[in-house]
Amino acid sequence: MNRPRRGFSLQVLIGLAIMVSTLLLCGVLAYQGYHGIKQALVAASADSTHQLGRTINERAQRLIDPVLSTIRLLAYDPISQARTLSQRLDRLPLLVASLNANSTLSAVYVGYPNGEFLLVRELRNATEKHDLQAPPGSAYLVQSISQDSAGQMQGEWRFYDLQLMQLKSVAKPDYRFDPRTRGWFVTGMESATAVLTEPYVFFTTREIGLTVAQRSVDGAAVMGMDASVNDLGGEVKDLRMTPGTEMAVVDSKGNVIIYPDLQRVVVREGEKLRLSRLDELGVSSLDWLLANDHKGLDPIRYHSAGQDWYGIQVPLSSFIQHDIRMLIAIPASELLTGARRALLEAALWAGALTALLLMAGWALSQRIAQPLQALTHQVRALAGFDFAQKVGVKSRITEVGELSQVLGSMSRTINNFQAITLALSRETDLDKMLEQVLGQLVDATCVEGGAIYLHREESQVLQLAAHCRSDPFPPELHLATHCPEALNTAVARALPSQVHPLTVALNDRSERLLGILVLQLGPAQQQPGGVQQPFRQFVQELSGAAAVAIETRQLIETQQRLLDAIIKLLADATDAKSPYTGGHCQRVPQLAEMLLDKVIETQSGPYADYRMSEIERYEFRIAAWLHDCGKVTSPEYVVDKATKLETLYNRIHEIRTRFEVLWRDAELEHCKALAAGGDQQALQTALDRQRATLQEEFAFVATANIGGEFMSNEAIERLQQIGARRWVRHFDNRLGVSRDEAERLATAPSPALPVQETLLADRADHLVPWGERKPPVDKHDPRNIWGFDMRLPAQAYNYGELYNLSIRRGTLTDEERFKINEHIVQTIIMLNTLPLPSHLKRVPSIAGNHHEKMDGTGYPRRLHKDDMSIAERVMAIADIFEALSAADRPYKTAKTLSESVKILSFMARDQHIDAELFRLFLTSGVYRQYGEQFLGRDQLDEVDIEPYLAALDSA
To answer: What mean pLDDT, rounded, does the chain reach?
Structure first.
């Protein structure tokens, strides 16, 4: 390991760390103080702004609400039904009283659908009276538009004093005012409730205000009142938070309604007056705020006109029918003046405090450095992976002592982790592995004891699998559910009251319960309020090792059970193909294992040192179950062929039909001869003789079809003589045939019908070529990568009738026997294509070599004894003996125990099977053990093994 580079002294680093930390702390505190004051000021400005908005709203509401109340009452006044000016003037006292009730009202008026109009205005100052040329003492002006008798509209102004005495009446022919063209009239007539217009400039008084309109209850007129909002401008000016604060009330179009400098709000355009637009005021801070439409509750900081501002918009709900809002912009420099002053004071105090703390930090670093330097050498050993060395130092500094204890505990915990890893990687037995892992868990957590319970999937029972140090744990726990509360309850009820358990569920990756870990807590872990979460988490992380071990083992067992089930399923499927060979794939593995057990148990002889591990035994068991898996490719009609002429059906019926044809032909010839005048007696004798011959010949052919006896040359010659008989076929034999059969018939010419044919024939269409299905069994075939060495028949099948009936022994032709023997080829090919793990690599050889012979004449590879393992030779004996003694073969009767043993002895003598294994087969009594379990009572005769043993000795 490389030595660390030279660095700074720990004492210097601690001193510097304390110094830097102090400086940083002071800086952070100063900044936080500044930031906090800044936020407080901003928040206070937001509160003040919202309070200002509420104030303006309240004052506007006090301005508008009385007007609304007054105009709602006025809507019930009969002035709406007045048809003449005099009738309307009769209601003048009420209209004047409405003006006097609210100082903000400048005028009250009534508009009629026919265009007539009446307005009452209070004259409040001398300037206004002068402009209107009012006579002295005038207090009110009544402006009217009324219809004369000719239907013409006449304008007239009347001046009244405070007692409503008319002082002057002036005709105004140029006074043209049609209320029907005004927005207040149109909206008022359309609405059943009072409506407010947007603020605008009153032309007569040059005040800023709004109109409140209300349709009379009878719908005959619209009442209107003009309310001034000039007073709100002065209030806005008084409510500014800083000297540089800019404030304005604007509508949705940007028109200024209220501004502290009211002179700048009203703009004259020719003879008209209008509200100033915000951009015309030249206040850029308010322009930015309106353009960006900030509607948040908190002020937004922005830059405008060379300085920073805090801005906010407050909607005025008093003008709810219109989008009226108040804009407020506060200079950031004025708002944050207090925050900067506080920051300066904090910096001065931080500097003084830093100087004191620097001296204290340097002294403290000296006290800490010395014991830590000693502890550094011990920790360096841990860095060098020496976890066995004791770690610890003595120090009056509590933290250093605790650090020493923690490092020692860490070293011990690392040792426990190493031991757990070692147990998981090396121990294959689950119970031993759980005991080792549990022991290390108990040591690492420093508890008094522990146990691991495994869950039974088929029940709600937890089985004790391992325990350590303490023995209060019952062998089983019963659960109602798998929830954590149920686990804790089950454990608490099962353990003595003095035991304090900590229960941790062991779950797999799918959160399925595998078992539980129970730790018996000691005093160190029993904290007030229960087990602390860090300790519980530490235990859960450590228990993950046990969960991994259990899940891995269960996955392996599940996969093994699945593999075994698939293997047995394949064996059962092979047996199920034929009712005659059913059970062969199940009986052979059991017989093979019986003999293999005796080989392993023997203490003397050539197999005294032969041993097999559990993995090798499992490999042998799989091979035994799969030894005939290739039979799934063998045609059933070949495997089950019970007669020589049987294919998919027994063709003896076809031969019998031909004999029937000859029988009918003989009768027809007899009848024709009688009709020609022949001797009846002689003809009948000839017919009877011919019938008898046909019966006898068919019986001979049918007997030959059974295949029960050896066919001699004389019998074969007689078959050929019988087959040479001729019969006449009148129907086309190429109709109704399959495509393959039609292709074979196409190789021979089609004779003209009727045609004479032999009774038994070997025709060209009886030959079925290999085609693309030719198996790679020739040792020179480049496809043969498995080392097969078998003689391949020229044809795949030969259905010739004389060819099949001439089989000398049994019912199989050479082609069919090869097809049956080919199952072992397919077995080897199939098993070699499987991705078998390394411990199962010999399965194809063990399963595929049971038809080999010790003298090298077997198949499919012509192996000798030395080329075969003991397990392969055991399989050969088991397969042969089961086949000999089986009672479900269609082509032979079941052999007794003694007959089967006798045949095996001949095979041992001829070096077809291993003679030493055959000797052990006899002396161990495996043949008898197997017979009693699987053979019928009539097969269990007495067997004298001595002659066979003597024959083996003499050989």
So the answer is: 80
How far is the first Cα of the chain from the last one, in angstroms, to the nearest whole number? 71
Q: Are strands 195-196 and 153-160 parallel, antiparallel or unpaired?
A: unpaired
- Rounded Cα–Cα distance for residues 870 and 598 (Å): 12
Instruction: Give whole-number Cα distances, 701 to 645, 655, 698, 798, 802, in Å.
Output: 10, 9, 5, 18, 10
Sorting pLDDT into bands at 50, 70 and 90, what band is 744? Answer: confident
SS3 label, residue 627: coil
Q: What is the maximal distance between C-alpha atoms in the chain?
A: 179
Reduce the DSSP state of residue 632 to 3 states and report it.
helix
Query: Which residues have C-beta within 8 Å of that of residue 318, sequence separation ≥ 6?
Result: 56, 57, 60, 61, 63, 64, 324
Sheet strands (E) in 74-232: 105-111, 117-122, 140-147, 153-160, 166-171, 195-196, 200-201, 208-215, 222-228
3-state secondary structure of 297: coil
| CA-to-CA separations, 146 to 118, 119, 792, in angstroms, rounded | 8, 12, 132
Contact 381, 54 (CB under 8 A): no
Give kind and range of the element (H or E) at residue 825.
helix 814-833
For residue 813, what are the contacts with CB-CB under 8 A and spacing of at least 6?
Answer: 797, 798, 803, 804, 807
Matching residue, tokens 């404030």 = 247
- Residues 684 and 573: their CA atoms lie apart, in Å, by 59
**Residue 1 confidence (pLDDT):** 45
CB neighbour class for 834 (10 Å; exposed up to 12, middle 13-18, buried from 19)? exposed
State the Cα–Cα distance between residues 164 and 90, nearest whole angstrom: 11
pLDDT at 370 exceeding the cut of 70: no
Q: What are phi and psi of 519, to 5 degrees?
A: -110, 135
Q: Measured between alpha carbons, how far is 629 from 837 in angstroms, rounded to an integer?
A: 19
And the tokens for 677? 């005048």
Question: In angstroms, rounded to a whole number, what is the distance separating the alpha carbons of residues 310 and 303?
Answer: 9
Q: Which two tokens stand for residue 891?
A: 């082509």
Q: Taking a C-beta distance cutoff of 8 angstroms, is the pair 719, 760 a contact?
A: yes
Starting at the earlier edge strand, list the strands of the sheet with 513-520. 476-478, 461-468, 449-455, 513-520, 501-507
Q: Are 264 and 276 in contact (CB under 8 A)?
A: yes
Whether 161 contacts 136, CB under 8 Å: no
Backbone angles phi and psi of 454, in degrees to 5: -105, 145
Yes or no: say if 201 and 272 are a contact pair by the CB < 8 Å rule.
no
For residue 842, what pLDDT is reported? 93
Q: What is the pTM of this model?
A: 0.54
Residue 580 reports pLDDT greater than 60: no
Which residues face 192 on adjacent strands? none
Q: Name 7's Cβ contacts closer than 8 Å, sequence gap at least 6.
A: none
Please name each of the domains of the chain with its CATH number: 55-334 (no CATH), 427-559 (3.30.450.40), 577-641+811-954 (1.10.3210.10), 652-773 (no CATH)
Gyration radius of the chain's alpha carbons: 59
Retrieve residue 927's tokens: 């043949």
Which residues in 28-55 are b (16+ Cβ under 10 Å) and which e? eebeebbeebbeebbeebbebbeebbee
Cα 185 to its chain centre, rounded Å, is: 68
- What residues contact 442, with CB distance under 8 A and at least 6 apart? 449, 450, 468, 469, 519
Run of H or E including 391: none
Question: Rounded to an integer, what distance in angstroms lies between the CA atom of residue 863 and that of residue 842?
Answer: 16
Query: What gap in Å lies between CA 417 and CA 917, rounded to an integer?
Result: 51
Residue 396 has pLDDT above 60, yes or no: yes
267/176 Cα distance (integer angstroms): 24
Sign of torsion over alpha carbons 828, 829, 830, 836: positive
Query: Which pLDDT score, from 0 to 100, does residue 346 have?
Result: 67
> What is the bridge-based pairing of β-strands 461-468 and 266-269?
unpaired
